[in-house]
Amino acid sequence: MPKTIDDLIAESEIRDVHVRFCRANDRMDEELMRSCFHPDAVISLHEELDVDAFIALGRTILSQYTATWHNTGNQLVEVDGDAAWAEHYTTSSHRIAADADGPERDFIAQGRYVDRMEKRGGEWRIARRTMVLDFLRTDPLSPGEAGLGSTGGKRDRSDPSYTLRIRG
């Protein structure tokens, strides 16, 4: 069956939720993170968490890194009225500072976010998310490799992605 314009709009809005989720992680923006989930959402990691517990866990985990970068790849979305199934492939990079365990290094996770999306009050958000981890690796950095050579990202609202946004 051909997709309708409404289906295509819904798919775009659902993909936007996932991109906001990636940004919320990297900027450690809890307000933006919360906007991705319905208040009663359930997030399945190693256990099932509510939104507050998930955000608190994310804050604890992400604060261990000097930088993170979440990227989305393949995105499949199937819309059925005000509900949808979505699968987003992701690669997440996490910069670890040099410490007793070794030199500065990148921890790379690759997996998928499998979501039940629901449109409530005219807004698509995640109602249930299962995070599927497919691959993990840690890559040590060579001396001099860690330098950014340009404007470094910030893990808060002072990042250029916030400060350079056009507001009207």
UniProtKB/TrEMBL annotation:
Gene3D superfamilies: 3.10.450.50. It comes from the Bacteria. It comes from Novosphingobium malaysiense. Residues 8-130 form the SnoaL-like domain. Residues 143-168 are annotated as: Disordered. SUPFAM superfamilies: NTF2-like (SSF54427). InterPro entries: NTF2-like_dom_sf (IPR032710), SnoaL-like (IPR037401). Transmembrane segments: none annotated. This is SnoaL-like domain-containing protein. Coiled coil: none annotated.
